[in-house]
TrEMBL record:
CDD domains reported in the protein's UniProt record: INT_ICEBs1_C_like
Annotated Tyr recombinase domain residues: 164-374
Organism: Culicoidibacter larvae
Stated family: Belongs to the 'phage' integrase family.
Protein known as: Site-specific integrase
A biological process term (GO) from this entry: DNA recombination
Name of one Pfam family that matches: Phage_integrase
Alphabetical list of InterPro entries matching this protein: DNA_brk_join_enz, Integrase-like_cat_sf, Integrase_catalytic, Integrase_recombinase_N, Tyrosine_recombinase_XerCD
């Protein structure tokens, strides 16, 4: 029996056609293809066949166009569609801004010139590696999902089958890309020039003093020793659930740092101490100044989230790999290690109970390893 694509509806006394298309619910019902019925009905069998031919021709034309389009063109087209969705309140503005950043700042510069039909698995793996080398794993994974949105859009509109897309590497597999997550002092001096002026001091404290975020944001002027040029680390600020602890307004000011060994006196490098004194004189000139004011922020403290955001913004503006505030603290330990400072001294400065904790993130530069081998000459 020959299956006809044009059928007759007895109730409406009209004709319609069916086309074999891919099933969007394949993962639910297990059917890879389904017969999709036309949206309209036609008064004659000939009109139904003509409409079916036009629909197939349009699908083939879209596929031919998809073979010619570049990744850049498809990205811009998808952004236009999402922009209209934002105006119709179908997509959040923040979601669109993230998509716009990923496609215009990462995908297009890296893959924009490649034709969509010529995109290969190697290109996709290379893009995954690029994201992992320049972003945190969680951020890189989120960015890659946005790139996949564009691929799915092209597949849906132009009926062009994409290449095999390898799964995004798990967090434990990140080390295979061989990227140590720290910044050296030369690059930090460049990066800090791109920071927001009011956050320069707190970001410098993370790198030059090795403070934790909560330790730095909770620091008040009464904890600063102007004679010994150092800081007394005794407090900590950490996020608190707003529903469970409404009195904390999202952040709890704790009277003790992370561990007992974290309570310490932290001497400051001369370069950092100079800008700290400048900030002290500025706040001191403000009417109502008190010693209980925060070193970084004044009458109110900087939230840990604000510090994290400004670290990311600073490095992005400087076109450097993304790091977290805690990784600036790691960079402090790495710099001291590469300068030959004793590990017990570094453990004291970092507020660690045991120097073995430094092994997790005090990275040795490759040139230091080469210098060490000179003892055999």
């Amino acid at each position: 029996m020959i299956l006809m694509s044009v059928h007759y509806n007895e109730k409406k006394k009209k004709y319609y056609y069916r086309m074999r298309v891919k099933n969007p619910n394949f993962m639910i019902d297990g059917k890879r293809y389904i017969n999709k019925q036309s949206d309209e009905y036609y008064t004659s069998e000939k009109k139904a066949k003509n409409a079916e031919a036009l629909a197939k021709a349009k699908r083939d034309d879209d596929q031919n166009i998809g073979n010619l389009l570049t990744i850049e063109t498809t990205c811009m087209e998808y952004l236009d569609i999402q922009k209209r969705a934002v105006r119709n309140n179908q997509v959040k503005v923040s979601t669109f801004q993230l998509l716009h950043h990923v496609l215009t700042k990462l995908v297009i510069p890296k893959l924009g010139s490649i034709k969509y039909s010529e995109l290969t698995t190697e290109n996709i793996e290379s893009f995954q590696k690029f994201l992992l080398e320049n972003r945190k794993h969680s951020t890189a994974s989120k960015y890659f999902d946005k790139f996949l949105e564009n691929i799915k859009f092209c597949k849906r509109k132009y009926h062009v089958k994409p290449p095999y897309i390898p799964p995004f590497p798990r967090k434990n597999d990140f080390k295979q890309f061989g990227k140590e997550r720290y910044i050296d002092i030369d690059n930090f001096k460049i990066a800090i020039s791109f920071a927001e002026p009011k956050f320069v001091l707190v970001l410098s404290a993370l790198f030059y003093c090795g403070l934790r975020v909560g330790e730095s944001t909770s620091l008040t002027w009464e904890k600063v020793d102007f004679e010994k040029q150092g800081l007394f680390i005794k407090d900590n600020i950490y996020p608190a659930n707003r529903k469970l602890f409404p009195e904390y307004n999202g952040f709890k000011h704790n009277d003790s740092p992370k561990t007992e060994s974290s309570v310490r006196f932290q001497p400051c490098p001369p370069s950092f101490w100079k800008i700290l004194l400048v900030e002290y004189e500025r706040q001191k000139s403000i009417p109502g100044f008190k010693s209980t004011w925060y070193v970084f922020g004044g009458a109110t403290f900087f939230t840990p989230l604000a510090v994290r955001y400004n670290v990311k913004k600073m490095l992005r503006n400087a076109n450097m790999p993304e790091l977290t505030p805690h990784e600036l603290r790691h960079s402090y330990a790495t710099h001291l290690t590469n300068e030959g400072v004793d590990s017990r001294v570094i453990a004291e400065l970092m507020g660690h109970a045991d120097e073995s904790e430094l092994k997790r993130y005090a990275h040795i530069k490759p040139d230091k390893k080469v210098e060490a081998l000179k003892v055999f000459e």
